[in-house]
Amino acid sequence: MSVNESIIGPKTFDFAVRIVNLFKNMTTERKEFVLSKQILRSGTSIGANVTEAQYAQSRLDFKSKMNIALKEAGETEYWLKLLKATDYLTEKEFKSLSDDLTPIIKMLIKIVQNSN
User: Fold this and answer.
1) What whole-number distance in Å separates Cα of residue 91 and Cα of residue 43?
2) What total of structural domains would you count in the chain?
3) To 5 degrees, how large is the angle CA 102–CA 106–CA 110?
4) Domain of 70, in residue numbers
């Protein structure tokens, strides 16, 4: 297990907690239900797929799960940008979440590249 693989689980879990809290805030305070559901799904799926990868049946299965986690991270990045562009997120909120997501994406890219 590489260093990236050992820290990616806790990082994606902590990020998922932030996304759940964002979802709660967006639905209760901002009354936004459609976009918030999208980011909830993709933002929590990152860590779920990383966890599934830890129990992969093969190296190929591991790489597949990590690739899915990376795709979900990319989708989450899109929703964050859209929420900011439509003023559902402030610049500060966007930057904070984006600053947590960017290193996750970088780690996932390295893990996928190194899992050949």
Assistant:
1) 19
2) 1
3) 170
4) 3-114
Report the alpha-carbon distance of residue 54 to residue 76 in Å, rounded: 22
Q: What is the CATH number of the domain that holds 63?
A: 1.20.1440.60
Q: Report residue 78 as tokens.
A: 């899109």
Write the pLDDT tens digit of every residue in 99-110: 999 999 999 999
Tokens of 5: 């693989």
Contact 104, 15 (CB under 8 A): yes
Residues 6+ apart with CB under 8 A from 43: 15, 16, 18, 19, 22, 72, 76, 79
**pLDDT (tens digit per residue) in 15-74:** 999 999 999 999 999 999 999 999 999 999 999 999 999 999 999 999 999 999 999 999
